[in-house]
Specification:
By secondary structure, this protein is α/β, with parallel strands linked by helices. It has eleven helices and 14 strands. Bound molecules: NADPH dihydro-nicotinamide-adenine-dinucleotide phosphate and aspartyl phosphate. The site of NADPH dihydro-nicotinamide-adenine-dinucleotide phosphate has 32 residues, from helix 1, helix 4 and helix 11. One of its GO terms (biological process) is methionine biosynthetic process.
């Protein structure tokens, strides 16, 4: 099989490095371009990245020269975007216009009417929007987005609850500092502390979830008819977002029925390379899931759930820069490839 040429925009950042890690030995994709700011362009990736993951930098990327974020300098079929949202707003359409498939992590286009916001295990049928997008915008390429990291972790757990008539969701997050990027939260601010505010995060959880669980009617997404209410908090954990979730359902399932639905959840995607063996892992110990112990389950792609109680109340936890960011985009691109759209 001929490898799909993959570029990474924002390749030196917290999410960009996760993309490099996910794509360096990928069976379908080959990294052909690493792009970042003018500060990094012209340097080798080794010099520019200041590698901060606890796996070794893949040898194959060490000497690649970092290029500016520009469709003329990036050689690829698909670009994975880990750019700051304000920059993604102007840059991603330029790439789509120039014929690239853009798999974006940035929030800029997630809620646009004609841009799919996809979690393969939740709403693969929303990819039908790509045709609407290309017709409307006249682009040769397209943009596909993945949700906010906290939204992904929560929504994967909500999907199996839809069968019980999901009506209301309340969530309180405990979010890792890597979610704010390498230059995000000062050590003096987060050490020995909890910060009960993450800009725009609550609104993203409250709106993106409705789009994800909505129905594609052939031309647009009709948002799910339910209410989501979020309170978001930064905690001194490096990786892994933990969420306390209250789910109100019409059929009032018992905790055991909810546990069974989590255990049986099988999205049947058809063996995509980044798909974890289990999208949801049920922990029955009284004190799990925990970020330090559970974030790398399924190579960081599984979401762990536990403490399922009357209410229904439970805890969900997932790796924010893998399942919640780079891994999510790569899984979207794998799904597109498996459907012949990439
Ligand atoms: N799905 C999700 O929930 C998540 C999404 N994200 C999103 O991913 C994106 C990246 O986040 P993160 O990796 O944490 O951010 P970082 O700050 O760690 O990295 C930013 C990257 O963008 C590049 N960049 C910054 N400014 C420019 C510029 N003017 N021109 C070109 N490149 C530039 C940087 O390059 P350089 O090193 O050269 O400065 C770097 O590669 C954001 O939009 C963020 O919101 C993040 C976490 C989770
Ligand atoms: N806000 C998230 C990470 C992030 O960048 O989200 P988004 O992609 O929605 O901007 C966090 O801090 O953990």
């Amino acid at each position: 099989m001929v490898a799909v040429k993959a570029g990474i925009l924002g390749a030196t950042g917290a999410v960009g490095q996760r993309f490099v890690e996910a794509l360096a030995n990928h069976p379908w994709f080959e990294i052909t371009a690493l792009a970042a700011s003018e500060r990094s362009a012209g340097k080798t990736y080794r010099e520019a990245a200041g590698w901060r993951l606890d796996t070794a930098m893949p040898e194959s990327v060490e000497n690649i020269e970092v290029v500016p974020v520009d469709p003329k300098t990036v050689e690829a079929d698909v670009v994975f975007s880990a750019l700051p949202a304000d920059l993604a707003l102007s840059v991603e359409p330029e790439f789509a216009k120039a014929g690239f498939a853009v798999a974006s992590n940035a929030s800029s286009y997630r809620m646009e009417k004609d841009i799919p916001l996809v979690i393969p295990e939740v709403n693969p049928e929303h990819l039908g929007l790509l045709e609407v997008q290309q017709d409307t915008r006249g682009w040769d390429g397209y943009i596909i987005t993945n949700p906010n990291c906290s939204t992904i972790v929560m929504t994967i757990t909500l999907k199996p609850l839809i069968q019980f008539g999901l009506e209301t969701v309340q969530v309180a997050t405990m979010q890792a500092i890597s979610g704010a990027g390498f230059s995000g939260v000062a050590a003096m601010a987060i050490y020995d502390n909890v910060i009960p505010y993450i800009g725009s995060e609550e609104k993203k959880m409250e709106t993106e979830t409705l789009k994800l669980l909505g129905e594609f009617n052939g031309s647009e997404i009709v948002p799910a008819d339910m209410k989501v209410s979020a309170s978001c908090h930064r905690v001194p954990v490096v990786d892994g977002h933990t969420e306390a979730i209250w789910a109100g359902m019409r059929d009032k399932p018992t905790p055991e029925e909810v546990r069974e639905s989590f255990l049986k959840f099988d999205p049947k995607l058809g063996e995509l390379p980044s798909e974890p063996g289990k999208a949801l892992i049920v922990r029955d110990e009284v004190d799990r899931p925990q970020p330090r112990l559970d974030r790398n389950m399924g190579k960081g792609m599984s979401v762990s759930v536990g403490r399922i109680r009357e209410g229904i109340r439970y805890i969900a936890m997932g790796h924010n820069t893998i399942r919640g960011a780079a891994g999510a985009s790569v899984l979207n691109a794998e799904l597109l490839h498996s459907m012949g759209k990439l």
